[in-house]
Design brief:
With about 475 residues, the chain is an alpha/beta fold. The chain has three domains: about 180 residues, FAD/NAD(P)-binding domain (3-Layer(bba) Sandwich); about 110 residues, no CATH class; about 100 residues, Polyamine Oxidase, Chain A, domain 2, CATH 3.90.660. The chain has 15 helices and 20 strands. The structure holds flavin-adenine dinucleotide.
Length: about 475
């Protein structure tokens, strides 16, 4: 570990924008090295996407989140921080396609039994056709759609991917950069498929099709706490404060003032007032494009164009307190035909729920901030409850409370050519002498918490290197 050559305590305060996993980790690294930090967080609680909403004795999560990693540093830090407050969690998932529930990971045997025989035949023929035509005639423009058709054929692509991806992200796979399909959705070509079918028929075993990227990919053991992942972020915040760090909640960053390549001041609103912090350096974990657009004087035209080109998809969460110990047959269920794409049953995560004998459901509606689901709470609540009743999962009289909460920037959208825009922004920030950027929004990357934490550590290390 490198130590700074200046006396950090005399070097001025480092402003950290946002107190999610990335911001909190950056603060932990900086305070450990003796730097004074102040975190500015617009919400009334820490944790960002991994934080929880505490209502009437219960914690509703954006997700909910589980902690998992194989990174030794992050794993060790979180195990040490949380001790026996961490509890193991076993993820179970059901996905509904064409009226049937499929377990995840998808099993070839499930596909063969549950899809109509005619569809299975068409899927097989289309898989072969797209595989061969992809080899002979590569498409003029590669998109996520061309890749998915080559991996799965047109029929399976239409059934399993097209509608689902379009409803979650708001754009069709044809408008997605090929990087999205390559990173998020594993390859299955005709040879893989034939081998799996052969094994499924011959061995009569559940042979998994590798679709790990179709839902959140996980590595390592899964953990949560009785109060959800939010307790991890709260413990991180306590540690930051114990080491002398300051956390300002309800503090919305509105402007970064720079002189040439140096950030001098951060402006934020809190309790109806505009406040400022003179800073020695800053780590951003807000959406990279928003932070760039907030900076004054503004950056060059190409940086501003790149900032305006990046887009995020929002999520509305409808949380329900339900009078039943558990409601869903699995911890997560995925749907294409309902108002929500995914729903989770928090009792199955080991959450402490009050009153006893009840569970919490959290439904996720992916949308744009101009959509009715975002702006109209009663509409979102009613849509979710009606869909759960139609799905025969719930009776209307079982719902005790309903709450709506939101994440404006839930998913970075990997549109065609987003890489070039992102690169422009990262290069502009790299040229700043006392500014770094980290995290899912801060680096516009579809990452999990442990990567956001790692990014926070790395941004702190890069900033220390810039300042010394
Ligand atoms: C539905 C869902 C489920 C997920 N499930 C898992 C999971 O099970 N396991 C896992 O490891 N990962 C999961 N993830 C990913 C995980 O949430 C992220 O990787 C992680 O929380 C990102 O942390 P971050 O600090 O980079 O960003 P964020 O958590 O977004 O933090 C950014 C912070 O900046 C604040 N902010 C924004 N604008 C301003 C402003 N102007 N002024 C002040 N503050 C501002 C925000 O309020 C927020 O607190 C999931 C993500 C989603 C969307």
């Amino acid at each position: 570990m490198t130590q700074s050559t200046i006396n950090p305590s005399n070097s001025g305060v480092i402003a950290i924008l946002g107190a999610g996993c990335a911001g909190l980790s950056a603060a932990l690294r900086l305070t450990q090295r003796g730097y004074a930090v102040v975190l500015l967080e617009q919400a009334d609680h820490v944790g960002g996407l991994a934080g929880g909403v505490h209502l009437n004795g219960n914690t509703y999560e954006y997700g909910p989140h589980t902690f998992h990693t194989t990174d030794p540093e992050i794993l060790n830090d979180i195990l040490t921080l949380m001790g026996d407050e961490l509890i193991p969690y076993r993820r179970t998932i059901l996905i509904k396609f064409l009226g049937n529930y499929f377990s995840f990971p998808l099993a070839i045997r499930d596909v063969l039994h549950k899809l109509p025989p005619q569809t299975v035949l068409h899927a097989g023929l289309s898989l072969v056709r797209h595989f061969v035509s992809g080899l002979l005639r590569p498409p003029a423009v590669e998109t996520s759609e061309t890749i998915l058709k080559r991996y799965y054929g047109n029929v399976l692509y239409e059934i399993f991917f097209k509608t689902y991806i379009t409803s979650v992200w708001g754009i069709s796979p044809a408008e997605f950069s090929p990087a999205f399909a390559r990173e998020r959705i594993p390859r299955m070509n005709v040879l893989d498929a034939l081998e799996k079918i052969r094994l499924a028929i011959r061995n009569r075993i559940k042979q998994p099709v590798q679709t790990a990227g179709f839902v959140e990919n996980v590595e390592g053991k899964l953990y949560t706490t009785r109060k959800g992942f939010s307790l991890i972020t709260e413990r991180m915040a306590e540690q930051v404060t114990q080491r002398g760090g300051r956390i300002e909640l309800n503090a919305t960053v509105t402007r970064l003032t720079r002189q040439a390549a140096r950030v001098q001041r951060i402006e934020y609103t809190q309790a109806g007032e505009t406040r400022q912090i003179e800073c020695a350096g800053a780590i951003n974990t807000l959406a990279i494009n928003e932070m760039v657009l907030m900076t004054e004087p503004g950056f060059d035209a190409s940086t501003l164009t790149a900032a305006r080109a990046l887009k995020f998809r929002a999520l509305v969460f409808v949380g329900l307190l339900v009078r039943r110990p558990t409601v869903l047959p699995s911890s997560f269920m995925y749907f294409r035909q309902h108002s929500f794409n995914r729903i989770s049953d928090l009792a199955q995560f080991g959450f402490h729920i009050t009153p006893a004998g009840c569970t919490l459901l959290v439904a996720e509606i992916s949308c744009d901030v101009t959509d009715r689901a975002w702006t109209d709470e009663p509409f979102a609540k009613t849509a979710v409850i009606e869909d759960l009743i139609a799905e025969k999962l719930l009776g209307a009289d079982e719902v005790i409370e309903t709450h709506v909460f939101r994440a404006r920037q839930a998913y970075p959208i990997y549109t065609l050519n987003y890489e070039a825009h992102l690169q422009t922004l990262l290069q502009t920030i790299a040229q700043m002498t006392n500014l770094e950027t980290a995290g899912r929004q801060g680096r516009f990357q579809y990452v999990n918490t442990h990567i956001a934490m790692k990014m926070g550590y790395q941004a702190a290390d890069r900033l220390i290197a810039k300042l010394t």
